[in-house]
Amino acid sequence: MKILFTGCTSKQTDDDAWKRARVKRIDDSSIICNSLRKQGITVDRKKVKWGDDLSDYDLAIVGMGTFGSNNYSGDIFNAIYVLSKAKKSCVFYEDWKINGNMKSYSKMLESGELEKAVAKKWSNGNYFYGGVDNPNFNLEIAKSVIHNLTLGWYDALIPAFDWGNKDIVRKIIKSKNIYNVDLSPYVVRNWNINVKPDYNLRKEKKYMLASLVDHRSWVKKQGLLWETVYYGAKSIKDSIKLDTETDVYNECGKYWGILCPEYPHSGSGWFRIRYIYSALQRSIIKTSLNDLKALDIPYKFIENLSDQDLRLYAELQRKQIFKHTWSCDIFDKKIKDICGSLIQ
Question: In the CATH hierarchy, which fold is given to the domain comprising 2-182+327-343?
Answer without folding.
Answer: Rossmann fold (3.40.50)
